[in-house]
Amino acid sequence: MSLRSLEGELKRLTELADIQDASDYYCERDDDGNLVVSFYDDTVERLPVLPFRPYQCDVQRKLFVEGISRFFLVRPRRSGKEVESWNMILQGAIEAPGLYMMIYPTNVRARIVLWEGAISLDGGESLKFLDMIPKRFIAGINNQDMSIKLSNGSVIRVIGSDIDPDKLRGVNVRGCVFSEYAFSDPRVLHILMPVFRQNRGWFILQTTFNGMNHAYHYMMNVKNNPDWYCRVDSVESLVDEAGERYVTDAMIEDDRRSGMPEFMIQQEYYSVVKLNEETLYFANEMNVIFQEKRIVSQLMLPDRPVRAFMDIGVRDPSSILLAQMDHMGKPHVIAYMENNNKMFEYYVRWAESVCVKHGLSFQSIYSPHDGVKKEFGSGKNVVDFGRDLGYRVYIVPRPVSKFNAIQSMRRMLYRTLFNKEQTQRLLDCLSNYSKEYDTKAGMFKDDPKHDWASHGVDSFQTMTLAIDGNMLNERSAEVVYINPQ
Fold first, then answer.
1. Kind and range of the H or E element at 288?
2. What average pLDDT does the segment 121-144 reach?
3. Which of 17, 101, 185, 428 could be a cystine partner for 161, CB 3.0 to 4.6 Å?
């Protein structure tokens, strides 16, 4: 055997021995809830790697000692959210083998903030997040899909919520942190929730506020639930053992001088919840909808026809909303759905199934202006497909400008009612529709951001333009579906 081959074999045997040694350990908790890992070779590892602050120790005890499994934590900027969250994931993965996930608003942000990111230490040094993992626990790291395999069998995945959420169906997650939940696609949590219930897994929703969007309303729903631990902090409530603030007025003033808008100062340092009209297009309108209780349980009009309004994507999701008009001409949105890589017929059959279930009449379909060009991979457009399925598809003209369309949608929202059970995803889209941020100019553009919220808003735009254009014809031939039950 050559010297190089011998060195390779010795390295392989050493790695195998390290993995075996890493599995020979037991875990304990100290008085602050910190994880103490003792190995049979008398070495000890302690997590978190960096000492937790008092408010972080509080969450640690609630999770790992008291057994609380649902957390909603509103943390201000510079409060150490990522260090806290990442070390919770690491502790869970070491103590109880399983799949653990750290979920960011986008995959790009996940890579920049955590996978390639680091924190600054006293003295000018830095520590990468990946280096916080005790080395003897690491069995493998996959840089491409941002996954870590531990020697005890645990797997840690770092992902963005901008993936296709349906790919997470059936994933058996034992512990999860949603970083900046107010800026993430809430559908990921909705898809994973049955898993958490079934396997008694835990999750943490960690965020700063982003106006009164899905995160704010979710917190209001769970804050008094005894199964949840909810905490809303500001820079004034996060103090050390001596009562000194971690984020001082001088630090905040420095951000003011650097041009940080005052609404962001209040939101991200003091956790002030207010209408975020600066960045969210429909902040005021959605707030009025909640205040006026126009989200109605089991909303249906049994004697009014149902129309479908669509946004059609090719690489993006397609979306469809079903609406009825009441005798006053107000739209009642009774159902909403979106999906990826489905033929036009899939959405029509879904609309029919809703009508069958509730004994409603399904009348017609409305497509945006570009629907006439979409072929769904078959050479047919939506008009052809509609004709084949026995429906007339109306093509809604293109708006004069996106600004005009947004103004029209704002007016329409003041007239619209929503089915509480079947339009939550659409409400989330409308609540999160936001302006694009220009990183070079350091300001928000007038153009909307194209993200997960766009598809629901675009189907609402189709409905708005069709109504404003007097395209709803009550005398059109109706196809009536009768519920056989």
1. helix 283-291
2. 92
3. 185
Judge whether 283 lies within some domain: no
Phi, psi of 27 (to 5 degrees): -115, 145
CA 480 to CA 363: how far, in whole Å? 8
Cα–Cα–Cα angle for 103, 106, 107, nearest 5°?
Answer: 80
pLDDT tens across 112-129, in order?
999 999 998 887 889 999
> What is the Cα–Cα distance from 251 to 249, expressed in whole angstroms?
5
Quote the number of domains for the chain.
2
The domain that contains 441 carries what CATH number? 3.30.420.280
Q: What pLDDT sits at residue 8?
A: 57
CA dihedral of residues 58, 60, 64, 70 (deg, nearest 10): 80
Under DSSP, is residue 331 helix (H, G, I), strand (E, B) or coil? Answer: strand
Residue with tokens 């004069």: 400
Q: Reply yes or no: is the peptide bond before residue 48 cis, omega within 30 of 0.
A: yes
Structural domain containing residue 159:
24-270
Any residues with CB less than 8 A from the CB of 253 and at least 6 apart, and which? Answer: none
Give the strand pairing for 443-448 and 435-438.
antiparallel
Q: Which residue has the tokens 């008094």?
A: 224
Instruction: Tell me the pLDDT tens digit for each residue of 204-218.
Output: 999 999 988 999 999
Residue 298 and residue 193 share a domain: no
**Reduced to 3 states, what is the DSSP secondary structure of residue 237?**
coil
- SS3 labels along 55-72: HHHHHHHHHHCCCCCEEE
Q: Determine the Cα–Cα distance for residues 449 and 234; give it in Å rounded to an integer.
A: 28
- Lookup: tokens for 70: 């649902």
Residue 218 shares a structural domain with residue 322? no
Same-domain status, 352 and 427 = yes
Question: Encoding tokens for residue 415?
Answer: 């007239």
Query: Which residues are within 8 A (CB) of 198 and not within 5 positions of it... i.e. 6 or more apart?
Result: none
Size of the chain, expressed as the number of residues it contains = 485
CA 35 to chain centre: 29
Q: What is the pLDDT of residues 39-64, one digit of tens each?
A: 988 899 999 999 999 999 999 999 99
